[in-house]
Design a protein that fits this description.
By secondary structure, this protein is α/β, with parallel strands linked by helices. Helix content is 32%, strand content 20%. It has a single domain, classed as 3-Layer(aba) Sandwich (Rossmann fold), CATH 3.40.50.300. Strands 3-2-4-1-5-6-7-8 form an eight-stranded parallel beta sheet, sandwiched between helices. Helix 7 links the parallel strand 6 and strand 7. Helix 6 packs across helix 7.
């Protein structure tokens, strides 16, 4: 896996699969021998939050920062002070799983002093099968809304175009066309092409971005 900045912000529109990517990405960093922490900063979506895999990730040696147990399922902007410690502790590789709209991105505002120094990557997860991010123009608008709310620029794109377990190679390639056009317009690199393992194995060489096979940690088999 390529070397991104120490603090990685993962965000994306509802249904983009940004939490699934964030969890997979965090586990991959841990497998590479890094000292890793993930902070669940999603104050928007009450479903499929990375905190739901807290026990699993902690068994792998990953530090998981999430709202207090009593507020774990509350849809409130309550973020633990422990996130500040992660920002300052350079021994950790940090993943921030951030809510995927302007309201969620505002949660980054309190950390502006740390992030504005440039030691971060903000990666935008795109699912071109979703109506709100189905065209290059809509993705560009979405990114610019996030950047205004967070007060920091995005630094990269992730093509995670999918239809859950029904995802095909055609889905991924169609999404790749969208993100490569966004890359051109916004001058942002396509960092990863994310897909379930069976589809990732079919992705041809020569596309922008590193192929990133993922497991579906956030959804049980029956979903």
């Amino acid at each position: 896996m390529q070397e991104d900045k120490r603090i990685r912000i993962i965000t994306g529109h509802y249904g983009s699969g940004k939490t699934e990517f964030a969890v997979n990405y965090t586990i991959k960093l841990s497998e590479e021998g890094k000292k890793v922490a993930i902070a669940d900063m999603d104050i928007v979506n009450p479903y499929f939050r990375s905190r739901e895999k807290k026990a699993y990730m902690e068994k792998l040696g990953i530090r998981v920062v999430a709202p207090l147990e009593g507020a774990a399922n509350a849809d409130i902007p309550a973020l633990p002070a422990e996130i500040y410690a992660l920002m300052q502790d350079s021994s950790y590789d940090v993943v921030l799983d951030v809510g995927g709209d302007a309201v969620g991105a505002k949660a980054l505002g309190r950390y502006f002093d740390y992030l504005s120094r440039g030691g971060y990557d903000m990666l935008i997860v795109v699912n071109a099968n979703r109506p709100n991010t189905g065209s290059p123009e809509s993705v560009v608008r979405y990114i610019e809304e996030i950047e205004r709310a967070a007060r920091i620029p995005a630094t990269g794109l992730i093509n995670n175009t999918h239809m859950l377990r029904e995802t095909t190679l055609d889905d991924v390639l169609r999404g790749q066309e969208v993100v490569e056009e966004v890359s051109r317009v916004k001058n942002l690199p396509v960092k990863y092409i994310s897909a379930v393992e069976s589809v990732a194995a079919q992705i041809p060489k020569g596309l922008q971005g590193e192929v990133f096979p993922i497991k579906m940690y956030m959804r049980p088999e029956w979903l």
